[in-house]
# Entry
Amino acid sequence: MPGLFNPLQLGSIELPNRIFMAPLTRARAGREGVPNELMARYYAQRASAGLIISEATGISREGLGWPDAPGLWNDAQVDGWKLVTEAVHAAGGRIVAQLWHMGRVVHPDLGGRQPLSSSATTAPDFAHTYEGKKPYVEARAATQADIDRILDDYARAARNAIAAGFDGVQVHGANGYLVDQFLRDSANLRDDDYGGAIENRIRFARRVLEAVGGAVGMDKVGIRFSPNIYSQGVEDSDPIPLYAEVAKMLEELEVPWIELREPAKPTAAGAIPTAPVSPAMRPHYSGRIIINSDYDWTDARARIADGHADAVSIGRLFIANPDLVKRLATNAPLNPGDPHTFYSGGAEGYTDYPALTEQEAA
Ligand SMILES: Cc1cc2nc3c(=O)[nH]c(=O)nc-3n(C[C@H](O)[C@H](O)[C@H](O)COP(=O)(O)O)c2cc1C
# Structure
């Protein structure tokens, strides 16, 4: 029976354990989205994770709408990420880059133009901008020329990620961002090859995976979905058949791993998800399944032991516990996290969470 501390192979990446660090936006890269020494220290502190999935990273200026989040579209960003990947590797870890296009939730103050989405819709709630929160603006429906350009941006970002020393990439297909805006029917109102029937709505994700896999090799590619939660106005009226088709597509493309933000019970944020969708994906997909969201260790161990999943990724506990894997192995107490410093910038609440002392770890 596999357990959390057993090794795992994800395509070309060999991992020593099955406790991953989930992607976590921390907004420390400055206005130009260039990673720095502080970020290198933060990630290196967490190198004992089986795999670090980086914070969401913009593939282009027009696709990045989070203040101070990093990018991967220019040489300065590649050089900045080299600091991070070298520090993680020197500390014995492995790291993949999460590739991000935010679609309709990019405010023009950050993206520099009207946002794009599958359809002309407006996201609910408010955008974070450098001048505080502002209402979202209506997106423009992407034309075929826009889609072709965005696919090129994905491919360039993937190549840049490998040039920056990442071990692979993860396409961000979750949480109401662009890939998700094509997948799920509350946001995709198109009636062309990219909308309507399920086979059309999954086409954009397919093209992105083909572009990224073509650029760096599919053995270095994973993708994240959030099949059973409402995210930024994006949800689906019938998720089981949609994600069963997604699973078949992933099998056909030989995508080696997927990560599902799939709460199994009401989340800490109070959202009540529908039932997990991964049991409907598993029969069609032979790759690795990583589960995420509000898992406690008993649940996570059980789902790995019974074959529903191969690994678990942990978000908030990794923010507050750089040595989370050791704490788990030794049943040590966990530091509480401070949500006020999640996106606040600087070292506080970022690189100053204590690791266990040698005595505590003994
Ligand atoms: C501060 C913060 C930043 C996040 N940033 C990202 C992100 O960049 N990309 C992403 O896919 N999910 C992001 N998430 C979601 C987490 O990856 C994860 O799904 C969520 O925290 C639930 O897992 P947990 O219960 O282990 O924390 C973020 C969550 C938090 C709390």
About this structure: The longest helix spans residues 144-163. Residues 101 and 130 are 19 Å apart (CA to CA). The chain has a mean pLDDT of 95.
